[in-house]
Amino acid sequence: MFKGLRKPMDLMVIVVTLLSYGCPIQGIVHAFDLDERTVADWRDRAGIHCQKVHQQIIEQGQLDLMHVQTDEIRVKGCQMIAWMGLAMMVSTRLWIAGMVQSSRDRSLADRLMIQVRRCAASLLPLLVLTDGWSAYPGSICRAFREKVKRTAGVGRACLQVWPQLHIGTVIKRTKKKRVIEITRRMAHGLQSQAERLLQRSGGGTVLNTAFIERLNGTFRERLASLTRKSRHAARRLRALETGMYLIGCTYNFCFAHHELSKPAHRGSPCTPAMAAGLTDHVWSVCELLGYRIPPSPWIEPKRRRRPGRQTEPIKTVRNRPRVRLRKGVLCSTTV
Predict the structure, then answer these.
(1) CA 293, 100, 232, 131 torsion: positive or negative?
(2) Residues 322, 223: Cα–Cα separation, whole Å
């Protein structure tokens, strides 16, 4: 992130830390006498860098997710409505996926579940709990499939859903802003296996979405544009996405989780990334922003050469008579 910037590194780390705790850009501008565009550029730079860190460390297909919860946040922007889909690993409280889109349709659920799939180790028992949105079960089944060759010999392999995939839905009915009824049901898989995964992951005794709703509250608290009834409305989807990755990466690597740090879990300051085995210490914000991303593997470019000389097509002789129109008179000619 610091490449090509002229301001002191300590100042940039302080500004990014304030942004990750939900401080509005206007407050940082008045506190440090910076230009508003400079602070917004630092936020976008930090978000893009955090996105690369997330892809490099978390999206490697090595996590035993076991229990995942997903939900969406409705974002009220300036002359627009956006949707932010989030997913978390319940056993370690790790934020694993996030998508920002202007519409709440099937493509949002598909993209979110594909990102979750990139984090998961293949063919392990998995429970996914969602709200009552009807797009989730189909998107989850499409994301967690593997190619299976059912017949020997030449033939095409078919896609088959993981045998130990379980999908549960939790539908809440409210009246006057109070929950009066909760409907829990299985959309795919077995109830007994789902309860066993709940106990193993420490996610409660019944199907619930409490953990992802608590994470939604954390994002709303730390991302100024998500705060309800505020004047810091989002104007661009890209700014929402970079802010989401900044909050998510600092939540995973830099800030000790209160529940994970209790004696019942670890007994010392512990982040979700430490609980997932991705790191062995609490990162500082400077360490996160200075993390070096390995370059992508080199691909040999295609050889460019001069195009070959095109040969002239061979003209074939026709002996069949052809009728032409000459000065209004039909006559037959041979070519």
Answers:
(1) negative
(2) 79
**Strands 329-334 and 321-326, sheet pairing:** antiparallel
Classified as helix, coil or strand, 101 is strand
Spell out the residues 6+ positions from residue 111 whose beta carbon is closer than 8 angstroms to its own.
85, 99, 101
User: Any idea what DSSP says for residue 102?
Assistant: S
Q: What is the pLDDT of residues 129-168, one digit of tens each?
A: 999 899 999 999 999 999 888 777 777 888 899 999 999 9
d(CA 264, CA 91): 13
Mean pLDDT in residue range 272-278:
94
- H helix runs in the chain, sequence order: 9-20, 25-32, 36-57, 106-119, 135-143, 191-201, 210-222, 237-253, 272-275, 285-289
Alpha-carbon gap, residue 168 to 191, rounded angstroms: 9
H helix or E strand, kind and range, residue 321: strand 321-326
Distance of CA 172 to the CA centre of its chain: 25
Q: Which residues have a Cβ under 8 Å from the Cβ of 177 and sit 6 or more positions away?
A: none
